[in-house]
Inverse folding.
């Protein structure tokens, strides 16, 4: 419950200044120091705002315990503010292994803290202290790994363009947050908790595997593309290879989610969530577009065009909201269908606008995603036949058989279809280079 409030406030946690540090071609110690203190002051303001809102949170959810919980969680804002610029510098230096190591250690610290608190009978406070332990460990790890220490803020350091960059990025995130959450708000308001529960479960289950692709890729791609912003040829090659990698990973996943919608929902969530099956199936249709669509942000951010990014958000948000409202009369299924249609309609103009002022042409981009789509079609038919023939198997039996078929079909198609074979060879090289934290951008 508190997460919904803190989640909204966290949109403003660094005003996009972390990305400003990563994106800028050359930054000075004075600039980073100034941004560091801006982040600290901003964190204090967010802490005070959250503390002031904590009684309202408790009143809204009719639970007086949430006042103290909200205030405690808000303490993490200060720790996050002290970490922002250090992690940005680590990303800027392409030290992705270090960042991953810090993240893993922080998570372990949180888990150990939660277990210790549970042992001492602290109940729900275990989750609060887990969150605080994670951000504390992240701050300590980032300061040790980075080695940079802030100086005092100064005037005339040239941070105004960086603040403007971050402000436009924050504006887009705010617009996007509203567009991405309106569906749950309206379904809950007009159709009740059952429908919104089915919708949110289906959407969360769909989003979980996709974010495992997009978030790590974004963490690597944005710093890399930012370093290549003045080298159009290498920028273009890296971006198209990265999109190719996402597409070839996402397509088989989406095909499986569409074909095995019923089996996956019942297996993961249980029979009581059977009503989420058609919602999950409809949302899965547009799942191909979302991970690829997320790469639009890479272009805007790496080229310093967050003002144009905010303008796109102001154009796309009303369209998405309109489609959600139009589908609302048919409940959660109608919203899922209308939302999916909106995402698919916006896919072409989304990229057309972003690529217009980039080194990448529309024909290059859409040519890249054609072959992964062809792979999806080649996979879909035999998988559907296998499911039909062996429909009498148990849920786990059907899923296991389909996964086995996928593992057999993928190398066969890659071997016999030369264009796909060539693409997969390229993305294997890219994936290996990303894993070791380097990229030759060739």
């Amino acid at each position: 419950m508190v997460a919904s409030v803190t989640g909204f406030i966290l949109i403003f946690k660094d005003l996009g200044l972390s990305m400003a540090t990563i994106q800028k071609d050359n930054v000075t110690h004075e600039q980073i120091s100034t941004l560091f203190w801006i982040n600290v002051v901003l964190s204090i303001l967010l802490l005070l705002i959250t503390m002031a809102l904590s009684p309202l949170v408790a009143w809204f959810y009719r639970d007086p315990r949430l006042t103290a919980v909200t205030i405690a969680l808000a303490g993490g804002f200060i720790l996050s503010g002290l970490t922002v610029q250090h992690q940005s510098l680590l990303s800027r230096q392409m030290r992705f292994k270090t960042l991953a190591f810090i993240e893993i250690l922080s998570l372990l610290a949180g888990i150990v803290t939660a277990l210790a608190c549970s042992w001492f009978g602290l109940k729900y406070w275990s989750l609060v202290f887990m969150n605080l332990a994670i951000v504390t460990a992240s701050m300590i790890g980032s300061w040790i790994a980075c080695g940079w220490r802030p100086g005092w803020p100064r005037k005339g350091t040239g941070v105004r363009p960086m603040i403007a960059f971050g402000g436009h990025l924050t504006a887009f995130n705010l617009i996007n947050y509203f567009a991405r959450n309106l569906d749950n708000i309206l379904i809950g308001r007009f159709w009740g908790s059952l429908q919104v529960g089915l919708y949110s479960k289906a959407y969360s289950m769909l989003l979980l595997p996709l974010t495992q692709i997009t978030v790590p890729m974004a963490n690597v791609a944005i710093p890399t593309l930012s370093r290549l912003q003045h080298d159009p040829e290498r920028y273009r090659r890296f971006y198209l290879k990265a999109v190719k990698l996402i597409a070839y990973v996402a397509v088989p996943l989406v095909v499986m989610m569409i074909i095995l919608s019923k089996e996956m929902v019942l297996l993961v969530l249980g029979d009581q969530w059977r009503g989420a099956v058609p919602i999950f199936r409809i949302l899965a249709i547009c799942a191909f577009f979302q991970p690829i669509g997320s790469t639009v942000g890479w272009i805007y951010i790496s080229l310093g065009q967050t003002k144009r990014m905010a303008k796109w958000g102001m154009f796309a948000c009303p369209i998405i909201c309109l489609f959600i409202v139009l589908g609302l009369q048919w409940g959660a299924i109608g919203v899922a269908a209308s939302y999916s249609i909106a995402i698919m309609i916006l896919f072409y103009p989304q990229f057309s606008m972003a690529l217009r002022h980039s080194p990448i042409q529309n024909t290059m981009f859409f040519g890249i995603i054609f072959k992964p789509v062809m792979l999806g079609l080649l996979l879909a038919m035999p998988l559907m036949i296998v499911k039909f023939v062996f429909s009498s198997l148990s849920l786990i039996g059907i899923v296991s058989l389909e996964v086995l078929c996928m593992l057999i079909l993928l190398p066969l198609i890659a071997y016999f279809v030369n264009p796909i074979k060539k693409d997969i060879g390229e993305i294997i090289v890219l994936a290996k280079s990303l894993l070791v934290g380097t990229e030759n951008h060739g």
Observations:
- The chain has a mean pLDDT of 89.
- The two ends are 47 Å apart (CA to CA).
- The chain has 18 helices and no strands.
